[in-house]
Specification:
By secondary structure, the chain is mainly α. The protein has one domain. It is built from eight helices and no strands. Helix 4 runs antiparallel to helix 6 and helix 6 packs parallel to helix 8. The radius of gyration is 17 Å and the shape is globular.
Length: about 170
């Protein structure tokens, strides 16, 4: 009973914050589409592969590290999404329509955000401070998912936490 009350309260807070972020910001919504697309997954395969080609020894290790981290992150993402079944904003807010059609039915956690934070955290741990500015890109991917109307802010926070945690765990394990 208490858990349901807490979840209901969290949903209300998330919906209010979502409405504040989503409404208006027409210019940002155009940019949001581009940021969102950049997090669709191709870069996460392309960049480690290029690194491997440029620097075969370290690149191979980074590729293996990233592959393992993404396998773990995708598993966690899938289990949470399929078991928690949090409805996306269009299904949870009467009369609301998102600007894009998401690839799946449920909202929690944000897979785009989780993958972006996983990748950027791995890059920062591997390459050092030179990769830190890329956190802006990861944050914009998460923000874009809210602006496009397919995620609540809490989904983004959870995705960022999962991606970052998995990256640190895998990096420190190896």
């Amino acid at each position: 009973m208490l858990a349901m009350s807490i979840l209901s309260s969290m949903q209300l807070v998330d919906e209010r914050l979502f409405n504040r972020l989503f409404n208006g910001k027409r210019r940002l919504k155009k940019m949001a589409r581009q940021f969102s697309r950049s997090g669709d997954g191709l870069l996460y395969l392309l960049l480690p592969t290029l690194y491997w080609l440029i620097n075969p020894v370290q690149g191979r290790t980074f590729f293996a590290l990233a592959s393992l981290a993404f396998m773990i992150e995708r598993f966690i993402y899938y289990v949470l999404k399929k078991n928690l079944k949090r409805r996306r904003p269009p299904a949870a807010i009467p009369g609301f329509q998102s600007l894009i059609i998401p690839s799946d039915e449920f909202s929690f956690p944000s897979g785009h955000t989780s993958a972006a934070f996983l990748f950027i955290t791995l890059c920062t741990l591997w390459f050092g401070a030179v990769a830190l500015p890329l956190y802006f890109w990861a944050m914009m991917i998460g923000f874009s998912r809210v602006l496009l109307g397919v995620h609540f802010p809490g989904d983004i926070l959870a995705g960022a936490t999962i991606g970052t945690s998995v990256a640190y765990s895998v990096f420190n394990f190896i």
